[in-house]
Amino acid sequence: MRITVTSGDRQVHIHIKGNSVRKLQEAEAAAQRLLDAAPKSPPKTPIGFTAEAPG
User: Region annotation Disordered: residue ranges (predicted)?
Assistant: First the structure.
């Protein structure tokens, strides 16, 4: 079984043997722990540009 858990721009892919509900719950819990342990993405700084014609 393969699962992908996404949180914003971060993803965790897990491949496990078996296909029981218990295995799925364990994989989801592991994915959540990995997402919680990973450093958060820094906030994106908004930058804007404008163009003006001379003169």
Answer: 36-55
DSSP 14: E
Angle at Cα 21 formed by Cα 36 and Cα 30, nearest 5°? 15
Name the helix (H) or strand (E) containing 12.
strand 10-15
Cβ 1 vs Cβ 18: under 8 Å: yes
Tell me the pTM. 0.62
Single-letter code of the amino acid located at 11 = Q
Note the pLDDT tens digit of each residue in 35-48.
888 777 777 777 77
In the chain, % helix, strand, coil (3-state, to 5) comes to 30, 20, 45
Query: Which residues make Cβ contacts (< 8 Å) with residue 2, sequence separation at least 6?
Result: 13, 14, 15, 16
